[in-house]
């Protein structure tokens, strides 16, 4: 019983709130330009200006300037005050660096998946492979690319380390431009068959085979680079961003 002068404590029926972080205008501009660069809709050496982007997207120049700076820091834009801004050439060194990061993370993730992935998780991966087959049949390159990413992300999620895909996503952009340059039907079928091999190893819970399958899959970018360079493509540079 509360004594005189004491306040009786009560339990307030307060709801649990979820904090929602809305993307800023600069975030949205960055994502649009980042996606256009990686898909090669904005190919290397394309001239791009703050004024033009600002006008076309209906925003002020400040968020565009911030997005440009972020893209430049990632090595996707070259900002030259005197001659303007252009989409960067593809740095072979940056591609190899991104591959190293992906390979180190995904080999370990596949080993972990062999121990912890559930039957439902394996079915999720199998469903993604079926959707990839449909994308190839429809000659839908952009959809296949998205499903390819979804397959790799799902392995991370089913391994209990979904955050690993966030790290990979931040580093794989330079690889993505090479993939889009070579993503014809033949290349898509190669990737599909490699995904099937990865899933087969995961189904069998064979860590060494799963790691070897992901190694083979991610190493194909080395062949792709040589193929493009042999065709005298002028979109590559030896300069590291």
Q: Topology, pairings included?
A:
Elements: H1 25-38, E1 47-48, H2 50-57, H3 61-73, E2 77-80, E3 84-87, E4 90-91, H4 92-116, H5 119-137, H6 141-158, H7 163-171, H8 173-182, H9 185-203, H10 207-230, E5 236-237
Parallel strand pairs: 4-5
Antiparallel strand pairs: 1-3, 2-3
Helix pairs in contact: 1-3, 2-3, 4-6, 4-8, 4-9, 4-10, 5-6, 5-9, 6-9, 8-10, 9-10
**Percent in strands:** 5-15%
Enter the CATH topology name of the largest domain. Answer: Four Helix Bundle (Hemerythrin (Met), subunit A)
Main structural class: mainly alpha
Count of separate structural domains: 2
- Low-confidence spans: none
> How are strands sequenced across the largest beta sheet?
1-3-2
CATH superfamily of the largest domain: GntR ligand-binding domain-like
Shape: globular
CATH architecture of the largest domain: Up-down Bundle
């Amino acid at each position: 019983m509360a004594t005189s002068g004491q306040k009786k404590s009560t339990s307030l029926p307060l709801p649990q709130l979820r904090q929602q972080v809305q993307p800023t205008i600069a975030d949205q501009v960055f994502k649009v330009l980042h996606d256009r660069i990686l898909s090669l809709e904005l190919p290397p050496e394309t001239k791009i200006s703050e004024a033009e982007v600002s006008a076309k997207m209906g925003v002020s120049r400040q968020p565009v300037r911030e997005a440009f700076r972020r893209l430049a820091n990632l090595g996707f834009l070259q900002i030259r005050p005197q001659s303007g801004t252009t989409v960067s050439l593809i740095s072979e060194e940056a591609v190899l660096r991104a591959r190293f990061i992906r390979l180190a993370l995904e080999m370990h993730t596949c080993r972990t998946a062999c121990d912890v992935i559930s039957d439902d998780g394996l079915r999720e991966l199998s469903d993604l492979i079926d959707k990839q087959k449909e994308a190839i049949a429809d000659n839908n390159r952009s959809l296949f690319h998205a499903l390819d990413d979804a397959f790799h992300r799902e392995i991370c999620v089913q391994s209990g380390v979904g955050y690993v895909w966030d790290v990979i996503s931040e580093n794989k952009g330079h690889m993505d431009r090479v993939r889009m340059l070579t993503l014809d039907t033949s290349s898509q079928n190669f990737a599909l068959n490699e995904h099937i091999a990865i899933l087969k190893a995961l189904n069998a819970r064979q860590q060494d085979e799963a790691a070897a399958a992901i190694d083979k899959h991610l190493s194909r970018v080395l062949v792709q680079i040589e193929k493009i360079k042999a065709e005298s493509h002028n979109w590559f540079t030896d300069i590291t961003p």
